[in-house]
Design goal:
The chain is an alpha+beta fold. It contains two helices and six strands; from the N terminus they run H-E-E-E-E-E-E-H. The termini are far apart.
Length: 87
């Protein structure tokens, strides 16, 4: 008998990677689960970010992937572009 397993809901909502440009810099955005985005800057693994409450975005620690509650203008600009791209 063949057993069919249900695909987890977060896999059904996975979004395709996309590029955004800020000035003359290209950022490649790779959506991950739970609203986390892996960001590559000019093709190099750069940061992970996550949307916080409202319009705020948080940079995640590279080792623990816990949110860093520091103000980062670049993270906010990238987040704003992600929000606009996703509509």
């Amino acid at each position: 008998m063949i057993s069919y397993k249900t695909v987890p809901a977060y896999l059904c909502r996975m979004e395709e990677p996309f590029d955004i440009e800020l000035g003359d810099i290209t950022y490649s955005v790779f959506p991950e689960e739970d609203g986390v985005y892996a960001i590559f800057k000019e093709g190099i693994d750069y940061i992970k970010i996550q949307k916080d409450d409202g319009d705020q975005w948080l940079k995640l620690d590279k080792e623990t992937e816990l949110p860093l509650f520091t103000e980062d203008a670049e993270v906010q600009l990238i987040g704003k572009e992600i929000t606009q791209y996703l509509g």
